[in-house]
Amino acid sequence: MTLPASIDDTEKLLRDGNYVADRSLATTLYLSLSMGRPLFLEGEAGVGKTEIAKVLSETLGRKLVRLQCYEGLDVASAVYEWNYAGQMIEIRMAEAEGATKRDDLGKDVFSEKFLIERPLLQALQPDEAGPPVLLIDELDRTDEPFEAYLLEVLSDFQITIPEIGTIKAPEPPLVIITSNRTREIHDALKRRCLYYWVDYPDADRELEILALKVPNAGEKLARQVVAFVQEIRKHDLFKLPGIAETIDWSTALIQLDKLALDPATINDTLGVLLKYQDDISKIQGSEAARILEQVNLEIAQAGG
């Protein structure tokens, strides 16, 4: 499938993948795709950053290459490494056959035959369906040396392997980079990208997302869940619930055959919505009952 030709097409593309995006996100994504620039997405965990790359891969019919970042990530895990066991076998076989030309043997064992491609190198390879979607997920978890290494990849979409040379993508991959902002990413890398902050959705958009992701949730339950989560996000918690937690909580309530929220059910299922005991302690009990009462009043006043 070809890339979207307009912002409206981009919105439709995301919608076809069950992703509800506001106009500004669709605009930035369209510009990223049309300009061939990486898209750098920042925001809290669970707001749907990673999902954008998955939706692009699915709706465009492109291969998804995901590099999950973590502390200590190095070139061997992210870019390439040599098949040392295979190289040793090749050397032993050459010795057994009486091979004496060291230079020829060196060229043979350091060839693509023994090259193990990791995500970044895989993303530069041609594909019949078109350039893949490269997801560099949670870049803020890596350290600065690896971040600096990415500059060559994102500048020229090429990787230099000393033993072989430079491998350049015939067509640049569609690059999505995400960060939960546990640390600041260097300006040099950000300058190579278009930037977008993915925020928590407002109530109307969260309801729309819930209708797509959990269609079997009744209208009353969905409105209560969204209003309750929206209210919780106003509290001073260690980790506010994202849209992923809203979806999980709704699914859990359906599993319990709940048609509406009640204080007991909220207390019993807060561990689906909140992930830290201190946060649960702040909300459960009388505070949860107060929020639910407020939510029900607001829904009633709105005619729900």
CATH class of the largest domain: Alpha Beta
**Number of helical runs?**
15
Share in helix: 40-55%
Query: What is the succession of H and E elements?
Result: HHEHEHEHHEHEHEEEHEHHHHHH
Strand order of the largest sheet: 2-5-8-1-9
What's the overall geometry?
A: elongated
Percentage beta strand? 5-15%
CATH architecture annotation name of the largest domain: 3-Layer(aba) Sandwich
What's the N-to-C terminus distance? 42 Å
Q: Gyration radius, to the nearest Å?
A: 24 Å
- What is the total domain count? 3
Mean pLDDT: 92
Question: Structural class, from helix and strand content?
Answer: alpha/beta
Biggest beta sheet attributes: 5 strands, parallel
Question: What low-confidence regions span 5 or more consecutive residues with pLDDT below 50?
Answer: none
| Overall strand count | 9
CATH superfamily of the largest domain: P-loop containing nucleotide triphosphate hydrolases
Please name the defining characteristics of this protein:
single chain, 304 residues, alpha/beta, Rossmann fold, 3 domains, 5-stranded parallel β-sheet, two-stranded antiparallel sheet, 15 helices, 9 strands
